[in-house]
């Protein structure tokens, strides 16, 4: 895990790395719920993916989706070194069509124990509508970056002030706010919104 953090720290988009304490929490959660079959939307260099694979039993599987395999390749040597590459099914491309293909098979409905999303924020709600059908009742979906650098609690004008980075925060803030409100009102899940990392929302499917 440390080797992968160090390798990611050399990348221009190193800020996308899941925090170590969040990765540790996810690993413990997977063990607590006895997860065996999991999904990950948004892989980057594979840090949270490695944490997941390490927590799964030897015959467990994580279906991982990302639009760029080149970032996954950065972490792949560490995943292999950890002895968990056989648990990972990496698929390159947009996640929504892949999730739709899974849903075409009714046997896949409710077949996953856990899903973790750290991807394009403007599609989080689209991911949710699919994942809540793919994850079993009692299973968990985790959404990363749900505090969005604290901007969800900030004044809109204050968020928009600043350079290009502030404009990116302001643009995606709307989608994160929409997600947070929707999850809080969704009768299919019960949620726990944590301040770990950049905000992690855990949704336990209840029906």
UniProtKB/TrEMBL annotation:
Keywords: Methyltransferase, S-adenosyl-L-methionine, Transferase. One of its GO terms (biological process) is methylation. The keyword Ubl conjugation does not apply. CDD domains: AdoMet_MTases. GO terms for molecular function: O-methyltransferase activity; S-adenosylmethionine-dependent methyltransferase activity. InterPro entries: Cation-dep_OMT, SAM-dependent_MTases_sf, SAM_O-MeTrfase. Belongs to the class I-like SAM-binding methyltransferase superfamily. Cation-dependent O-methyltransferase family. This is Caffeoyl-CoA O-methyltransferase-like isoform X1. It comes from Ananas comosus (Pineapple). The lineage of its organism: Eukaryota, Viridiplantae, Streptophyta, Embryophyta, Tracheophyta.
């Amino acid at each position: 895990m440390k080797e992968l953090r160090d390798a990611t720290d050399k990348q221009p988009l190193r800020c996308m790395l899941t925090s170590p304490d969040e990765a540790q929490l996810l690993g413990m959660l997977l063990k607590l719920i006895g997860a065996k079959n999991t999904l990950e939307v948004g892989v980057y260099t594979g840090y949270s993916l490695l944490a997941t694979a390490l927590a799964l039993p030897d015959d467990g599987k994580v279906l991982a989706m990302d639009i760029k395999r080149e970032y996954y390749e950065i972490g792949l040597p560490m995943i292999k070194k950890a002895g968990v590459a056989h648990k990972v099914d990496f698929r390159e491309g947009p996640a929504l069509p892949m999730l739709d293909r899974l849903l075409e098979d009714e046997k896949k409905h409710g077949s996953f124990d856990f899903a973790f999303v750290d991807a394009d924020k403007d599609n989080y709600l689209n991911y949710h509508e699919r994942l809540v059908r793919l994850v079993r009742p009692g299973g968990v979906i985790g959404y990363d970056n749900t505090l969005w650098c604290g901007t969800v609690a900030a004044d809109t004008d204050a968020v928009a002030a600043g350079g290009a980075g502030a404009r990116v925060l302001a643009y995606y803030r709307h989608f994160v706010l929409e997600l947070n409100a929707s999850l809080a009102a969704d009768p299919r899940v019960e949620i726990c919104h944590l301040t770990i990392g950049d905000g992690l929302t855990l949704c336990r499917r209840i029906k």
